[in-house]
Amino acid sequence: MNAGERIMGFKKILHRLDGSHASFEAFRKTLALATACGAEVHIVVVEKVPHYYGDVGDPDEAEQTVNTNSSRIADIAQEMARRENVSIKAHVVVGPYVKSLLRLISAEQCDLLVIASASREPTLCRRTSGKNARLRLVNRMPCSVLVVE
Predict the structure, then answer these.
(1) Which stretch of DSSP H or E encloses residue 135?
(2) The whole model's pTM is what?
(3) What is the spatial distance between Cα 141 and Cα 97, in angstroms, rounded to a whole number?
(4) Helix (H, G, I), strand (E, B) or coil at 59
(5) What is the rounded CA–CA span in Å between residue 77 and residue 16?
(6) pLDDT tens string for the chain (149 positions)?
(7) Cα dihedral angle (89, 94, 98, 101), rounded to 10 degrees?
(8) Residue 44: helix, strand or coil by DSSP?
(9) Which class for 141: exposed (0-12), middle (13-18), buried (19 or more C-beta within 10 A)?
C-alpha cells in the first residue's frame, strides 16, 4: 500500500479515554487506524455518578473536579490528534458506564468502539472484573469493539 492510499473500513470510531497511560497509548493506535481508514474520530470520557448523595462532600466542588479532569483528558487527546493531523470530537458524559457508551454509539452511529485493555474501567457487575468485565462489555455493544493490549 502506498503512503497516500487509504484502506476501506470503519467510518466512525469512538475511543474511550479514562486518563490512564494505557488509554492514551491505545489512542495513538486509534489515530493511526483512523488515518488509514479515513474515519471520523470521537473520544468519550465517562464520568461516574456517585451512588449516594452522601458520597460527595460538596456537590459543586465534585462537579468542578469532574469537569477539570475531563477537560484535561480531552485537551491531551486534542493535542495528540492535532499532531497527527486528525480532527476529533470530544464527548464528556456523566452516567452509568455501559448505558452512556450505548447511547453515544447510537447517537453518533459509530461502527467501532476502542478501549484499552489495562485502562481503569469499572466492573460491570460486582462479581466480575478484568477480562470478564471487558467480555461482558464487548457482548453488549451494537458495534465492533477493539480492545487494545
Answers:
(1) helix 131-140
(2) 0.78
(3) 12
(4) helix
(5) 11
(6) 455 555 668 999 999 999 999 999 999 999 999 999 999 999 999 887 655 555 555 555 545 555 678 889 999 999 999 999 999 999 998 888 888 899 999 999 999 999 998 755 444 443 444 566 667 777 889 999 998 98
(7) -20
(8) strand
(9) middle
Residue with the three cell numbers 493490549: 149
Location of C-alpha cell 497511560: 21
Provide the residue type at 54 as one letter.
G
Chosen CATH of 12-148 out of 1.10.443.10, 2.120.10.30, 3.40.50.620, 3.30.499.10: 3.40.50.620
- Domains of the chain by residue range: 12-148
